[in-house]
Amino acid sequence: MGTIALSEGVAADLTAGSTLIEQERPRGQWARAWDRFRANRLALGSLVFCALLILAALAAPLVAPHHYAEVDYTARLAPIGAPGHPLGTDLLGRDIAGRLVYGLRTALFVAFGAELTALVLALLVGLVAGYRGGRVEQGLMGLTDVMYAFPSYLFAVVLVTVLGRSLFALILAIGIASWVTQARLVRAQVLTLKQREYVEAAKAMGARGTTIAVKYILPNAIGPILVTTSFAIPAAISAEAGLALLGLGVQPPTPSWGAMITDGMRYLLAAPHVMVFPATLFALTLLAFTWVGDGLRDAFDPTAEQR
Hints:
The protein is about 75% helix and about 0% strand. It is mainly α. It has one domain: Orthogonal Bundle (MetI-like fold), CATH 1.10.3720.
């Protein structure tokens, strides 16, 4: 009986010891970042709001009460709460709620497409310049400096004018005009990370060139890149709306928040809801993505745990 009790005591000690080891095991960077992000209620709520916006844009035909091009000639400039039109209609009798949802789809499609384009260009230029160095770096960063000196919004206007008014042209124009800042960030991260011990160890094991840059350097630079991407998305939404204000947005009747705001300004006194709803949703969307970016910046801040 004493032997059995002793064995049970040893087993209990081993179980407690293994539990203690598991509790003391350091958590990864992403887990710690998520904990800090989750503690920021404003950022977490904004992330939920952005997720709902994305779902609404994807399910626009199911969410929108009417198609964006559907016209009700008997209800032009209908007020809020009109039968069948909870947010009213515009001058042509088109449902504002439906156009808001489809305008959200346009804004997010252009924003994410443009940011993907910018991110690909930034990664190519930043990785190659930072890792190769020498004349390659000088040439690529010289190109980056030239692009940085040219106003990005004006460059987007020129590209849209040349390429024409289409979703593809907007995505390409905004993306090409906005990759410079991220390219500089990627290069700076690569210059720092390529001196780390794990990169030297990878070289000692025979890894070379693209393998080191993509497999060892890029994953450790994702945090700062993710932060800049979260800030670049609302900037792309603003750029799309700004181009629409200039008459360089998507071709009608495809809705755009910028075009809806421009049209609504003409009837601000007679029917303010035509402008107020798209302007309000536009502002809330920008704030939500910006607050998500603030939360990500704090979450990936290496000094956050020391505060």
